[in-house]
Amino acid sequence: MDYEQILYEKAGGIATIMLNRPERMNAFTPVMLREWAGALEDARLDSKVGAVIVTGAGKGFCAGADLSGGENRLDATDGPPPTTAADFRNWLRDSVHYVPRAVALLDKPYIAAVNGAAVGAGMDMCSMADIRIFADTARVAMSYVKVGLVPGDGGCYYLPRIVGLAKALELIWTGDFIDAEEAVRIGYASKAVPADDLIPETRALAERIVAGPAVAIQQAKQLVYRGYDSTIEQALEDANRSMAIVRSTEDSKEGPRAFAEKRTPKFKGR
Predict the structure, then answer these.
(1) Structural contact between residues 28 and 36, judged by C-beta atoms closer than 8 angstroms
(2) Rounded to the nearest 5°, which phi and psi values hold at 115?
(3) CB neighbours of residue 266 within 10 Å
């Protein structure tokens, strides 16, 4: 697949998606959304990929939707722009929601290297990553309220699960920016690093994950996310099934063997 508005590469078991509209602070368009979702699907299906990094080119991570109009409209069609609630009922589903739906299918670790501002739907896109590492210059805001809107890209789903109900509501209701230090303090970011170290630090974490037992890592991710919406009995049954799967892998035998032999395990992802 050729890409116009993202850069996508795979190396060393890590897929990297870079949003590539720096002149617009990586505000997304219909083209970028399709490419972003397509790259996530490619990474999901590639057995050689063990983790995915998403970041932005230039000074911004993602400024949300591009509001410049014309062919960049999320509701751009060959006909007139939609004007009624009935016309608009599927416009998010058939545009912005391509990405969170692709993320929901991705059972591999998904890490956001937040290089700059993530605003509105851009913060939602940031929130759907499993882990966030911030440059010390980065900041984020749930800015929908400033323009009289509600979070439309899953923000009301993701954010309370990351920072808790009260803090999520405060951020959604005020639209205030938080900087990298505050993002770490409230648990939104795992850590903040100097901007020049962001990609090396993020990649180092991804490399550690990729060196691990891939089946166990992916099963653990599924258990964590399913557990949010499960009873304890359902969660235990899910764990039982996942344990049966991982115990059948070569990696589950290599780990104890390496421990007994006092050496670093050599996991193969199977």
Answers:
(1) yes
(2) -85, -20
(3) 11
pLDDT digits (tens, 9 = 90+) for 213-257: 999 999 999 999 999 888 878 777 877 778 788 878 888 888 778
Amino acid type, 195 = A
172, part of any domain: yes
In the structure encoding, which two tokens stand for residue 113, read together? 């290297």
Q: Select from 114, 125, 152 the least CA-distant residue to 28.
A: 125
Q: Which domain holds residue 236?
A: 214-260
Count, in order, helices (H) and strands (E) of the chain.
11, 10
User: Which among 106, 152, 114, 109 has a CA at the least distance from the CA of 135?
Assistant: 114
pLDDT digits (tens, 9 = 90+) for 181-197: 999 999 999 999 999 99
Does any domain span residue 1? no
Tens digit of each residue's pLDDT (9 = 90 or more) over 38-90: 999 999 999 999 999 999 999 999 999 887 765 656 655 445 566 777 777 77
Cα–Cα distance, 206 to 76 (Å, whole number): 37
Rounded to the nearest 10°, the torsion over CA 169, 130, 154, 161 is -30
Same domain as 68, residue 174 = yes
Q: How many domains are contained in the chain?
A: 2
Q: What pTM was computed for the model?
A: 0.89
As a whole number, mean pLDDT of residues 127-148 equals 95
